[in-house]
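Record now logged for everyone:
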Amino acid sequence: NLARTMLREDRRHYENDVAAYQLKTLELTKYDEMYDEFSDLPVWIHRDTNETLYDKPANTLTYPERPNSLLDDKGEPLTPRTIARLEASSSSEDESYSTSSSLSVEDNSVQSDAHEDNIDESATKPE
């Protein structure tokens, strides 16, 4: 099913973009601000690599926009469970995938519902 494949690809690209943004943001926390003893100007030194920057390190990536395929009719983000159901919707060509996927989603239904109600995307999205 083309729609299901497109949804899955949109989700994967979005998740990869979010992970890249979060990784870059985490990497920036490893720079410590120091002062050059000769010029008395600030420098930033990476804790792991000792790389020295004379300009404050900044995240050049922007937080990725959620693709429209992962939004509902009102423009609100679909829950992970809804996305999983849409990706696993039955089709005659891929019955084994939908059966195994729907079982794994349903097995965790109690935990998933409780977890989804408490998801706060603003905690990971910059202001």
